[in-house]
Amino acid sequence: MENSLPNYAFIDSQNLNLGVRSLGWNLDYKKFRLYLKNKYNVSEAYLFIGKTDGNQDLYTSLQQAGYTLIFKPTVAYYENGKKTMKGNVDAELVLYASAKLYDDYDKAIIVSGDGDFYCLAEYLEENSKLLRIITPNRRYSKLLSGYRSYITSLEPLQSKLEYLKNKKPARAVGRNLRQSRKASQNVRSVETLGKPRHGDSPVNIAKNRQKSKPSSNERGRV
């Protein structure tokens, strides 16, 4: 009998955020949530995040994008003279994935490149519940190297998952008309993120199909 349980994603927000930003771009969390849903049939995406005052707008936008937030108290520390807030979510993430929610899902996706999750990956694989490990870039912990067959990096997916702030539509005149059409195609492609039969691959998700070139006979028609 086929398992009717859904798939869950467990996301280390700090590792994801800093890992993507180290590549020089910011992740669009709404697009990423859609990708998890379409590609891996993720019905619940648990995002483990440190809670700090003044970030309520961020928390609200993440919830509206479809994430369930699990908060962890933060502590302040100084690095190179700069004050940094850190919330260690590792233990919470492992607890939820291996105990609290273990019986509620079929397969799990771990979103992090942190080697601290090696034990969780091992446990889930032994129990046939590990689906994927999504790392923000290709520089993940060596402890996870034994799970390469499970690993997908977001690094090649920038063009589809990048957050573009205040991107204004091009005016529909001449060259700008082509840019406007291209922008429109990119908006539509977001709806197919991760879906099969849309040119989906680990290298390029939901790539719009290129229009075939007209034949010589078609070019000659009036």
General description of the model:
With 222 residues, this protein is of the alpha/beta class. The protein has 2 domains: 7-165, 5'-nuclease (Rossmann fold); 167-222, no CATH class. Helices cover 34% and strands 21% of the residues. It is built from 8 helices and 8 strands; from the N terminus they run βααβαβββαβαββααα. It has helices spanning 13-21, 29-40, 56-64, 90-100, 118-126, 158-161, 175-190, 216-220; strands at 7-12, 42-51, 67-73, 75-79, 82-86, 108-111, 130-135, 151-153. The strands form 2 sheets. It has a 6-stranded parallel sheet, with helices on both faces. Strands 4-5 form a two-stranded antiparallel ribbon. A hairpin with a 2-residue loop joins β4 (75-79) and β5. The chain is globular. Residues 169-181 and 201-222 have low confidence and may be disordered.
SSE layout and pairing:
Blueprint: E1 7-12, H1 13-21, H2 29-40, E2 42-51, H3 56-64, E3 67-73, E4 75-79, E5 82-86, H4 90-100, E6 108-111, H5 118-126, E7 130-135, E8 151-153, H6 158-161, H7 175-190, H8 216-220
Parallel strand pairs: 1-2, 1-6, 2-3, 6-7, 7-8
Antiparallel strand pairs: 4-5
